[in-house]
Structure formats: C-alpha cells, structure tokens
Automatic annotation (TrEMBL):
Start and end residues of each Nitroreductase domain: 12-192
Keyword Oxidoreductase: yes
GO molecular function: oxidoreductase activity
Phylogenetic lineage: Bacteria, Bacillati, Actinomycetota, Actinomycetes, Mycobacteriales
CDD domains (UniProt xref): Nitro_FMN_reductase
Keywords annotated in UniProt: Oxidoreductase
Species the sequence originates in: Gordonia neofelifaecis NRRL B-59395
Pfam families, sorted: Nitroreductase
Official protein name in the record: Nitroreductase
PANTHER family: NAD(P)H NITROREDUCTASE YDGI-RELATED (PTHR43673), NADH DEHYDROGENASE_NAD(P)H NITROREDUCTASE XCC3605-RELATED (PTHR43673:SF10)
Taxonomic superkingdom: Bacteria
Stored InterPro entries: Nitroreductase (IPR029479), Nitroreductase-like (IPR000415)
Family: Belongs to the nitroreductase family.
Length: 227
C-alpha cells in the first residue's frame, strides 16, 4: 500500500474475523514500528503480545470501570475523562450505565492484544511541572503505537488504541508482571477487520492549522484536505 493510503485509511477496527495474526506478521509489524521516535531517543516503550484467552478476558474486565464512566459521561453530554471539566456523573448514573461489555469486548475477542507500556524512569516530560495534566510523556510512546497500527494496516490487519485499561494500571501490573516504573499506555486489540473503512471523518486542515499565531489565518483552505 502507498503511504498516503495507509495513513488515510487506518481506522479504529473493533470487529475481527477469525483469521489469526501470525507471529511472523506481528514480527514484520514490530520491525517497521520500532523506527518510531521518542524523547532523547530513550526508547522506553515495551510491548506485551497477549494471546492467552484468560489474560485477554481479564484485560477486558479491567477496562470496564473506566469504560463505564466513559459511557455514562457521554450519555450525560459530557466530554468523557476530560482533565479540564470535572464530571457530574454520580454512582447511580454509573450503576445504570449499559453497553460496557460491548465497549470492552474487542479486547476479549481479538486474536491478539498488544499491551504497550513505557518506562517513566527514562522518558522526558518537559511539562511535568505545569499546573495541568501531563501530555509530553505520552509522546515517547504513542508514535510507536501509531506505527504499529499503520504497519498492521499495510499488512491487511487493524486494531484500536484503547486506553480504558490505563485507569486500572495496578491490575495490569499484577496480571502481566509490568515493572513499577512502567506506565500502561494502551491495549491494542488487533486482528483482521471484518470491514475496511476507507473514508475517515476528520476535520479539514483549514479548521486546525493557522499561520504564525493560534488565532492567525487558517492554513490552506485547500479542497484536497476536505473529507
Ligand atoms: C488516545 C486514544 C484513546 C482511545 N481509547 C479508546 C478506547 O478505550 N476504546 C475504544 O473503543 N476506542 C478508543 N480509541 C479509538 C478512537 O475512538 C478512534 O480512534 C476515533 O473514534 C476515530 O475512529 P476512526 O479512525 O474509526 O474514525 C482511542 C483513540 C485514541 C487516540
């Protein structure tokens, strides 16, 4: 596949055929993905290939509390897990929330789940002293995550970045033996997608790129970037 086609069609795949994801294919995916950048080239990421059905089921289970809150907040018209706007969702709302099992199901049923962690003992987090949630640390692991997904796409496979599991990091640590300094960045259910989306809904360039200043002129209201 052409690079442009890969980037434009790597969607969040959540339904998979029964096809396996063989080790040799995974090996090729990792072989490409490993060229991701990280702060200071410290390469603190680690990927755990989880095929054991019990482990996958447990990872799905561990994802449920965060998924429940995500769905409850969405139902309440909130922006789920938002670091700026606190939630008004109550325990009663959470108890009434439906759809949690389906939301985490891809983790339980995918042929393989990749759990990606990053060693906080080596990442550089230049925003760690600001009075807001940290974001820079993630930049030393999510390029690798995205490389995995795009490399998988070019091999005809697909998956989703899921992060509900991160809220239950201790449980993942216990289940998979993740060291104390590693943060759990994502669980990626991976398989052969039942359907391939080819037209992703994304805002056009002119809506989020400006010249010189945040409030500067929109960059290129170019028709090619629409759709
Ligand atoms: C940081 C991040 C966290 C995400 N967490 C989840 C998740 O926990 N569960 C899930 O089903 N999808 C998750 N997604 C997938 C997004 O919902 C998906 O990328 C987005 O809706 C675009 O979907 P599309 O590429 O199919 O258009 C996550 C994506 C990102 C980038």
């Amino acid at each position: 596949m052409q690079f442009d086609d890969v980037i434009r069609t790597t969607f969040a795949a959540r339904e998979f055929t029964a096809d396996p994801v063989p080790d040799d294919v995974l090996g090729e995916i990792f072989e490409t993905a490993r060229f991701a950048p990280s702060g200071g080239n410290r390469q603190g990421a680690h990927v755990i290939v989880v095929r054991d059905p019990e482990s996958k089921a447990r990872l799905a289970e561990l994802s449920k509390p965060a998924a429940r809150r995500y769905l409850a907040q969405r139902c309440a018209g909130e922006n789920p897990w938002n670091p700026v706007h606190p939630t008004a969702v109550t325990e009663a709302d959470l108890a009434e929330t439906r759809g949690v099992d389906g939301f985490v199901a891809p983790i339980a049923v995918a042929p393989v789940v990749l759990v990606v962690t990053v060693d906080l003992a080596v990442v550089a987090t230049t925003d760690s002293e600001l009075d807001r949630v940290g974001i820079v640390g993630g930049a030393s692991v999510y390029p690798l995550v995205w490389n995995i997904l795009t490399a998988a796409r070019s091999h005809g496979f697909g998956g989703t970045i899921t992060t509900m599991i991160s809220a239950e990091e201790e449980g993942v640590r216990e289940l998979l033996g993740v060291p104390a300094t590693h943060a759990v960045a994502a669980a990626i259910p991976l398989g052969r997608p039942v359907k391939q989306l080819t037209r992703l809904r994304r805002v056009p360039v002119a809506d989020f790129v400006t010249r010189e200043r945040f409030d500067g002129a929109s960059f290129g209201a170019d028709e090619r970037s629409r759709g």
